[in-house]
Design goal:
It comes from Cochlearius cochlearius (Boat-billed heron). Pfam families: Copine. GO terms for molecular function: calcium-dependent phospholipid binding. With 79 residues, this protein is mostly helical. It has a domain of 46 residues. The chain is built from three helices and no strands. It is flat and about 35 Å long.
């Protein structure tokens, strides 16, 4: 949602609103390293033990991922 201190969105509508807002504000430039982001979100999700929330990580890229091997490994490990 653009707020690093409170990144939660409410429902699918909140996710879509955050996505549309990011399209207007995100500037794509490199290097693009996604593994740290995947791991950060996974740690946040792991902290919710009661299953009351779900986490969606939307990755927007210009097609160039600088740490592709690490990103793949992170996605496999956290899934």
């Amino acid at each position: 949602n653009g707020d690093a201190a409170n990144p939660a969105c409410s429902g699918i509508e909140g996710v879509l609103e955050a996505y549309h807002r990011s399209l207007r504000s995100v500037q794509l430039y490199g290097p693009t390293n996604f593994a740290p982001v995947v791991n950060h979100v996974a740690r946040s999700a792991a902290a919710v033990l009661d299953g009351s929330q779900y986490f969606v990580l939307l990755i927007i890229t210009d097609g160039v991922i600088s740490d592709m091997a690490q990103t793949k490994e992170a996605i496999v490990n956290v899934s």
